[in-house]
Amino acid sequence: MNTMTLWHITGWEFAALAFAALLVGFSKTAVSGANTVSLAIFAAVLPARASTGVLLPILIAGDLLAVATYRRHAHWPTLWRLFPAVAAGVVVGTVFLVWADDAVVRTSIGAILLLMASVTVWRRRTAEKEEDPESVTTRPGRIKARSYGVLGGFTTMVANAGGPVMSMYLLSAGFRKLGFLGTSAFFFLIVNVSKLPFSAGLGLIDGRSLLLDLALVAFVVPGALLGKWAVHRINQRLFEQLVIAATVVGGLQLLLR
């Protein structure tokens, strides 16, 4: 990673990254998947490959705050069923990053953002119709868990964009708000920590990127506190519409850059 570019950001660019870090904290304690906007901001301000390495420790900081807030509501049987498939997806994503250059990664992130926006729209339209979600103990449920797990592992490794994939899976599995937040908090903490050696081995994380993270992580905390306050007050439908719109704009910006 050409970390020298991390020191050449302007004040406005740092402000954009700080806002993205605040949004990470908010998404971890209020609306999982909203950090796709943060992904778009990081990839627009920084080189696409470098952005994934800088963003990862920020996400882990948000995960720690989410676990501290919702740790009592996690559903561990679901987590254990997902992890093997996610691990396979992370390995596939790592292999992809070995040969993909910055332009390919940027295009891939843009395409993934647009895909995730489409998935979120589909999820919102079908979630209300699904009165009896499939259990993960049935054969169709296990197939669905493995499919979402592999896709989630790949997208989270390549672009830190596994949130919408897991959000759709957990909602389709019938999780209520607190169970959803608690399960996703532990899921992403474990997955993101497991990605650290892969990202470091690829040169996406080093001392300079961690210094930038140190400057940005302070903005995660107020975002998480805001999310904790807003989770019972926020108009979910309107916020998801805004997130989808911002994600589409971010994805198009990356594809057309």
Number of H/I helices = 11
Largest sheet, in brief, is: none
Poorly predicted runs are 1-5, 130-134
Helix content: over 70%
Number of strand segments = 0
Mean pLDDT: 82
Distance between the termini: 20 Å
Radius of gyration (CA) equals: 17 Å
Structural category is mainly alpha
Overall shape: it is globular
Order of helices and strands: HHHHHHHHHHH
Residue share in β-strands: under 5%
Would you summarize the structure shown here?
This protein has 257 residues and is an all-alpha fold. Helix 3 (48-70) packs across helix 10 (220-230). It is built from eleven helices and no strands.
Note the topology.
Layout: H1 11-29, H2 36-45, H3 48-70, H4 76-99, H5 102-127, H6 139-159, H7 163-172, H8 177-201, H9 207-216, H10 220-230, H11 236-256
Helix pairs in contact: 1-2, 1-3, 1-10, 2-3, 2-5, 2-11, 3-8, 3-9, 3-10, 4-6, 4-8, 5-7, 5-11, 6-7
Describe this structure as you would to a colleague.
The chain has helices spanning 11-29, 36-45, 48-70, 76-99, 102-127, 139-159, 163-172, 177-201, 207-216, 220-230, 236-256. The two termini are 20 Å apart. The longest helix has 26 residues, at 102-127. The protein is an all-alpha fold and 257 residues long. Residues 1-5 and 130-134 have low confidence and may be disordered. α3 (48-70) crosses α9 (207-216), α3 (48-70) packs across α10 (220-230) and α5 packs antiparallel against α11.
